[in-house]
Structure to design on (556 residues):
C-alpha cells in the first residue's frame, strides 16, 4: 500500500497558556536512547483512542506525548553514534514525532525535555519540593541500572539483573541529593486502597500495593554527578537532576506549569498511560513528588503489558523486532490500530503473529465490516435509490418480519432489537472506556471489550442483510427492498460512528460514503442523526482491501 510517513510537524512544543478541559491524557515520555518500536505505537494509539472517545462523547480532552532526552544512556548512545547528545536526541525525537503522525495520533502538545520551557517547569518543581523540606544532600551506593536510570536493592534483583531484565553494575559511594520518598509511603498506600489514586488494571494495582506494603520505602536518590547530560540542580552545578524527575515533569510542562498551574490543578480527570516496566515511577515517585510540591495527583495510571512475536520475547539477539512503520505499510493504518486495540485485554501481554494479524484484517475487517459497507452502498447507488438515502421506515419490525420470512424466531427477535442496539452503542462502550469512577461505573479501560460491542452489531447486521436478501426483493417487492436497505444504512451509520475513536480514517471514509455531515458525527447523533431523505450515497470504494499474504515483508 506504499504508506508514506507524513512530514514531521515542525512545532517543538505547543504550550497551553490557559486551558479548561475535562480529560487530560498522556502517553509516557518516550526515551530517545533507541528507535521507536511497536510498544511505543501501542501506548500512543491507546491514549489517542481514549482522548478521541471523550471528545466524541461530549467531553473536552487534551492529549500529550513527547520525548525524554536527558540521561546517561542517551549520552552513551550519542557517543556511539558519533553525535553530540543534542544532535542525537533531536534526530531520534523526530522519529518519535513521525511515528505519532503516522499512527494518526491527534496530540495537542509534543514535549521535548531539552526545551527551555521544560527546564523552567523542572526547576520550579524542584524548588517547591526543596522548600517543603523534602530534599537533602547525602551519599549513595548500590546496584545501578543504566538502561532504567535507577538504583535497585539486592532484594529487588532477579537472577542478578534489574526487575526489567536489564544489566546492573555496582556503584561505589557517590554524593547525591535525596527526596524523602519514605515520608509518603502511608498516604500512597491509603490513597491507592481508597481509589483516590486509581491504577488499572487491578493486577497492576496489586503489584504496586504489594511493593509498598512489603518493605519500608527508601528515600530516592534524585541527582547524579557521574555525567553531565541533563538539567543542573538549582544552585548546585555539580549535580544533574535525576532523569525521572526531569522526565515526569513533562506532564506539567505541557500545561504551562508553573505560569498556569491551574491547568493541571483544575482538570477533573488526569490519565497517564504507561508500560508496566515504568509503573513504579508513575505510581509511587510521581504522586509523592506532586504531593510534596502541593500539587494534586493524577487520577488514573493505566499500565499495559509487553508485546511478544510468535510467542517469543522481542529482543535484538533474536532479531525479531517489529517495525511499527512496516506494519502500516503492509496492513494500513486503521487495520493496524484495530489489531493493537482489539487483540488483547488492555493491561495483559500481547502476542503478534502474521496469522492473527491476517485473521483480524482479512477475516473480520475486510469480510465483515468492509463487505457490509460495500454491499449496502452498492445497492443504494443503483435504481431505484439512485445514490440517495430513502426515508427511514416507521414500521421497522413489520418490514423485518416480512423480509426475513424464512428466519426462525430467535433470529427475528435478534433483528427486531438490532437498530435499537446499534443506536445504544455509546452506552454499551462507556463502561470499558471509563478511566475514573463514576456514580454507576467502576473505572475500567478495556478497548477489546468496547470493540467487541461493535463487532456484535457488525456480525448481526450481516446476518440481517443475508436473511432479508434485498437483491431478491428487488424483483418481488421493491418497496421492501428499499426499506431493508434503509435499515441496513442506519446500522452502517451507527457502526461507523462507533469506530471513530479506534479507526478514525476508515470510519470517516464510511461516513463520507453514506453522506453523514461532518457536524453530525458525535455520539450525540446516534439517536438524533438519522440520515435525511435524499442524502447523497457515494459509489463505494473498499475501506479494508484484502491483504495478499504473499505480498508481505518476510518479518511481518
Amino acid at each position: 500500500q506504499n504508506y508514506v510517513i507524513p512530514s514531521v510537524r515542525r512545532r517543538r512544543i505547543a504550550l497551553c497558556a490557559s486551558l479548561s478541559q475535562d480529560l487530560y491524557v498522556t502517553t509516557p515520555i518516550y526515551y530517545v536512547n533507541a528507535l521507536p518500536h511497536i510498544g511505543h505505537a501501542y501506548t500512543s494509539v491507546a491514549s489517542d483512542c481514549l482522548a478521541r472517545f471523550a471528545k466524541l462523547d461530549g467531553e473536552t480532552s487534551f492529549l500529550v506525548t513527547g520525548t525524554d532526552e536527558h540521561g546517561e544512556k542517551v549520552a552513551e548512545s550519542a557517543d556511539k553514534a558519533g553525535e553530540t547528545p543534542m544532535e542525537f536526541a533531536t534526530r531520534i525525537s523526530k522519529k518519535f514525532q513521525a511515528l505519532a503522525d503516522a499512527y494518526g495520533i491527534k496530540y495537542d502538545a509534543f514535549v521535548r525535555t531539552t526545551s527551555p520551557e521544560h527546564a523552567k517547569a523542572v526547576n520550579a518543581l524542584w524548588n517547591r519540593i526543596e522548600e517543603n523540606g523534602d530534599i537533602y544532600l547525602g551519599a549513595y551506593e548500590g546496584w545501578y541500572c543504566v538502561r532504567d536510570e535507577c538504583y535497585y536493592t539486592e532484594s529487588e534483583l532477579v537472577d542478578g539483573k534489574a526487575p526489567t531484565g536489564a544489566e546492573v553494575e555496582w556503584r561505589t559511594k557517590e554524593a547525591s541529593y535525596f527526596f524523602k520518598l519514605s515520608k509518603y509511603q502511608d498516604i500512597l498506600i491509603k490513597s491507592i486502597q481508597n481509589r483516590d489514586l486509581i491504577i488499572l488494571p487491578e493486577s497492576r494495582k496489586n503489584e504496586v500495593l504489594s511493593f509498598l506494603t512489603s518493605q519500608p520505602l527508601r528515600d530516592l536518590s534524585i541527582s547524579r554527578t557521574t555525567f553531565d547530560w541533563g538539567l543542573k540542580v538549582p544552585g548546585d552545578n555539580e549535580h544533574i537532576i535525576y532523569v525521572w524527575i526531569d522526565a515526569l515533569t513533562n506532564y506539567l510542562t505541557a500545561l504551562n506549569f508553573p505560569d498556569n498551574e491551574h491547568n493541571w490543578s483544575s482538570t477533573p480527570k488526569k490519565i497517564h498511560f504507561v508500560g508496566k516496566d515504568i509503573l513504579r515511577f508513575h505510581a509511587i515517585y510521581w504522586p509523592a513528588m506532586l504531593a510534596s510540591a502541593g500539587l494534586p495527583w493524577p487520577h488514573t495510571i493505566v499500565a499495559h503489558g509487553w508485546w511478544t512475536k510468535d510467542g517469543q520475547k522481542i529482543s535484538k539477539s533474536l532479531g525479531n523486532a517489529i517495525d511499527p512503520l512496516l506494519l502500516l505499510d503492509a496492513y494500513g493504518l486503521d487495520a493496524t490500530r484495530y489489531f493493537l486495540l482489539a487483540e488483547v485485554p488492555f493491561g495483559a501481554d500481547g502476542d503478534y503473529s502474521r496469522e492473527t494479524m491476517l485473521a483480524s484484517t482479512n477475516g473480520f475487517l475486510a469480510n465483515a465490516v468492509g463487505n457490509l459497507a460495500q454491499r449496502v452502498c452498492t445497492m443504494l447507488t443503483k435504481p431505484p435509490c439512485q445514490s440517495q438515502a430513502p426515508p427511514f421506515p416507521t414500521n421497522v419490525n413489520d418490514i423485518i418480519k416480512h423480509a426475513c420470512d424464512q428466519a426462525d424466531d430467535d433470529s427475528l427477535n435478534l433483528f427486531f432489537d438490532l437498530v435499537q442496539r446499534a443506536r445504544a452503542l455509546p452506552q454499551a462502550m462507556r463502561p470499558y472506556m471509563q478511566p475514573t469512577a463514576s456514580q454507576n461505573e467502576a473505572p475500567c479501560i478495556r478497548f477489546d471489550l468496547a470493540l467487541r460491542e461493535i463487532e456484535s452489531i457488525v456480525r448481526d447486521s450481516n446476518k440481517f442483510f443475508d436473511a432479508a436478501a434485498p437483491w431478491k426483493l428487488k424483483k418481488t417487492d421493491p418497496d421492501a427492498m428499499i426499506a431493508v436497505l434503509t435499515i441496513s444504512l442506519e446500522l452502517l451509520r451507527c457502526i461507523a460512528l462507533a469506530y471513530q475513536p479506534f479507526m478514525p480514517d476508515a470510519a470517516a471514509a464510511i461516513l463520507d460514503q453514506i453522506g453523514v455531515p461532518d457536524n453530525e458525527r458525535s455520539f450525540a447523533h446516534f439517536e438524533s442523526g438519522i440520515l435525511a431523505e435524499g442524502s447523497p450515497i457515494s459509489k463505494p470504494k473498499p475501506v479494508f482491501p484484502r491483504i495478499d499474504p504473499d505480498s508481505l515483508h518476510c518479518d511481518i
